[in-house]
Amino acid sequence: MSTSNDSSIAQNFASFFNGWLVRQERFHERLVQALRSQDEVGIQQQESLILQVLSHYEQYLVEKTIAARKQVLLFYSPPWLTSFEKALLWVGGFNPFLLFKLLANSATELTPEQEEAIERLKCETRREERELTQDWARIQESLAAFPLLDLVRRYGGRIEGELSELESAMDTMKVAMVRALERADKLRRSTVRKLLQTLSPVQTVKFLAASAEFQLTVRKWGLQKEQQRAT
Q1: Is the distance from CB of 74 to CB of 10 less than 8 angstroms?
Q2: Which ranges carry the DOG1 domain (predicted)?
Q3: Count of domains in the chain?
């Protein structure tokens, strides 16, 4: 259990995340600008921009996976997020159903076919969300169950063999937490992909702009609240 190593992983990811957010702001500006162009050239630019934005999100997920496999505990209460942002977390990230709320506030004039496809996706996403929530609840229960906490309580006595048993139990928990996090990220990724398959390029740009704006606004509010508490 290396605290210095954990701190290094947290600092490295925080540095990556802050840079990623700067690029997120730039992409948000470009998405808003792209909505003003409705000619043929504009549509082509929108499609190119969509690919760039999706690649930007994919980069985040790749870096997150690499860091989480080294120290998964960080991603269930990330020190690089504000308390307000942490309060919105679901299994180490955003709740996939949030995507449908953002869509409802951004993409207008959906066709009946689109609405039908989105409703099917909603049901599918909600079902998988419930399964993951139940799995995560079981993991949380295990964290507070014997023998883990019992071993922690008795650790002061340094009874022979208990330290290795504690480490083994912790390793088992971490494996379960990594698995839950990666399943949740897989659901987040697949929900976005399937949702975008139902939308036109213009609708997709509106949706991506609304998603980026939501994240940046939550970040801004969180920082403001922490600043207010500090002063």
Answers
A1: yes
A2: 10-228
A3: 1
Strand partners, 90: 93
Exposure string of 69-80, with b = 16+ CB inside 10 Å and e = fewer, is eebbebbbebee
Query: pLDDT for 157-171, tens place per residue?
Result: 555 555 566 677 778
Distance CA 78, CA 76 (A): 6
Containing structural domain, residue 66: 3-230
Query: Residue 142 — pLDDT band, cuts 50, 70, 90?
Result: confident
Instruction: Tell me how far apart the alpha carbons of residues 225 and 222 are, in angstroms, rounded to a whole number.
Output: 5
Helix (H, G, I), strand (E, B) or coil at 224: helix
Q: Which two tokens stand for residue 108?
A: 């207008």
pTM beyond 0.90: the answer is no
Q: Which two tokens stand for residue 133?
A: 């929530």
Q: How far is CA 49 from CA 17, 36, 70, 99, 201, in A?
A: 21, 14, 32, 19, 10
Separation of alpha carbons 216 and 218, rounded Å: 6
CB 132 within 8 A of CB 91: yes
Q: Distance between CA atoms of 88 and 17, rounded to whole angstroms?
A: 17
**Torsion of the alpha carbons at 165, 166, 168 and 174, rounded to the nearest 10:** 170
Q: Is the pLDDT of residue 18 over 70?
A: yes
Query: pLDDT for 37-71, tens place per residue?
Result: 766 556 778 899 999 999 999 999 999 999 999 99
